[in-house]
């Protein structure tokens, strides 16, 4: 690995100092913001995530705020997800598509209060798109990027810890539900969500003054639960089939191809006509590799003899399942049980398409 | 410095393998693409840049292509620069603003052939904005991101080397002029431009098959000129007053505040009304620091006693000028000769506003 040269252009977060004190060893850059990727090692970080509780600086999930008389109409114009079915107090995973149905982002949206939307972004400057659409369509809204930063709490002991810090009512928050809860002299929005399959919360912090007191409080209360600083883990998220925008899918892929067809519920949105007429030619699949892959820093071809069946876009070695775990995109002619050859930058590895992800 | 964790989401370029073989030690991430930042050290890289010639992988300057009947009209809608004054065969620096006149990007645009525009991006997903505006305004255009990657050739010996590789006519290319020139079995666009004050070229390579042959040819011909792999250099670019979008200015700043008022030539563009009504409240200035600053990984306050006069956004130590060199943004009440205190993460440094940059 090479070093990451710091600069003012790459945002530090309210917790970067704490993350560095806790021993982060590698970052990535996500929405021009530092995102921790490794503390001890990704395999040790993964083992710990599955057994205890971790505190994650995921402030790189930048927020877009849309408010005004046409906020609901604009939101529905942006996504094929039917937002009328999203109940108050619930988060919604909302693929955002271009006119061709290509994925521009796959954020989580919620209404922190009636008439206001927050969109919690994957890695693209979606605000530019939202503002361009709003301006062009004459929507009466204001679009901004509020400085709301997210602290994640993930792992099997996250519910216990959240109950101690925020109160027993956090136990009753359903998956993808959220509550505003008092903290310090303010409030934070606590959502049961997050980028692991171990359970936990994302805490939307709307005020820099609450940021380090929250970190410190969680850390102190978490000591008895073996709390550590952590981060989205490449192994665990692939085992769980959690997709990464920019890695596993991008603008060249539709929600159907990305395995997100169940979120295409209406066609009166941007890209709707293309999605209605869409014929799916490839699919996201779980891929098992026979040996430990090298670092997946580029796409790898999946070959069926001389024919390219598709490509692998994310991969890691799983200690738990004792195999390489990968996310692939393959043509519709291939399916579970098919054995292919994965051509990495270093070697060729036997790959098998699985029925489903590991978790 | 921490490590940069590689992933498929962070694009490698056609030259990343060559850059690594040449000994890159640190990257940044720019438009989700790897951009080399340090080879030996920034001071040694700087010294060499000023004396010889360097080959730069600046493929992170991603391209947007706009073509179609309304391409010219859309381009003019996007920028306050008067594009009618831009002659064929010339590049144009075109600030792009939002409705408030805030800078969304400061790309270089050119017409590789009549009726087609390429926009060579600074660090933001401007294609999302351009497409949103085009869709909303009903412009008859197609907008795409072609895989055209740029190889830079910078340094006092760049002209000599370019003449040897591309022919004597490259000597006649004026500043910000360009020519299509044959290379291998194709053509490359050679522009006299680039992100240093040492002179040189940016070579737009429209075909992956030409990429490494071009690198190898330049490298071989450059040996007698002490060619090295290099990159935009933080010291040299600050000495020369070359601004960095995301570091020195961003959406919160107008072109006037960023010192780019001379490019505001028309007001019939997005943001035009705001720019016409604009009252400038701050200004970009050169700042001399009395000692070597720490790494500028965040904004530093510039204090005039107890009053904040502004902030420093980029800084480095200059061996040539034997002082700290910095880019600041200060209120209109301050000017050349004013002595301020720069508050970094480590210490307080004496700072003086200069009349102009060093080069």
From TrEMBL, chains A, B:
Domain GCVT N-terminal, chain residue ranges per copy: 32-265
A Gene Ontology molecular function term of the record: methyltransferase activity
GO cellular component, one term: cytosol
UniProt superkingdom: Bacteria
Name of the featured protein: Dimethylsulfoniopropionate demethylase
Ribonucleoprotein recorded as keyword: no
SUPFAM superfamilies for the chain: Aminomethyltransferase beta-barrel domain (SSF101790), Folate-binding domain (SSF103025)
A biological-process GO annotation: methylation
Binding site for substrate: 202
InterPro entries: GcvT/YgfZ/DmdA, GcvT/YgfZ_C, GcvT_C, GCVT_N, TrmE/GcvT-like
One family name in Pfam for this protein: GCV_T_C
Protein keywords: Methyltransferase, Transferase
Keyword Disulfide bond (UniProt): no
Positions of the Aminomethyltransferase C-terminal domain: 282-354
